[in-house]
Amino acid sequence: MSTSSTASVSTHILDTCVGRPAAGVAVHLSARSGRGARHGQAGDWRALGGSATDADGRCKDLPALPAGTTHVRLDFAVEAYFERSEKKQADAQQDAPANRDSGATEVFFPEVAITFAVVPGEHYHVPLLLNPFGYSVYRGS
Known about the structure:
Layout: E1 8-15, E2 20-21, E3 26-33, E4 46-52, E5 58-59, E6 69-77, H1 79-84, H2 86-92, H3 97-102, E7 112-117, E8 123-131, E9 134-137
Parallel strand pairs: 1-8
Antiparallel strand pairs: 1-2, 1-5, 3-4, 3-6, 6-7, 8-9
């Protein structure tokens, strides 16, 4: 939960290929702060910890952001998710030419890193819409 001096972050992942939440995806949260962060002169990223998505594709226990945070990075380790669900993905996309004709067996996006700016007192819900060959994010509510 955010206070007047901090922001807060939540996320969830929807596998748009199968129309279901993506469970068991590791998510790591990092932050940086300082006035220079907005101009590329910030200090190093500070790893805050992480979680994994639940059966509903949600991370409900991400660490709190420290006061003064100006940028947040969410790192989603999606490769293991796709490897676990490879059979389901292949069945769901049996007619997808890019999947069928490419012969590729490796994950195209093994990880997804999303960086965004925050201001104190705001909550940021950042959903990840994921499929084997693309992804999209947005600021949710």
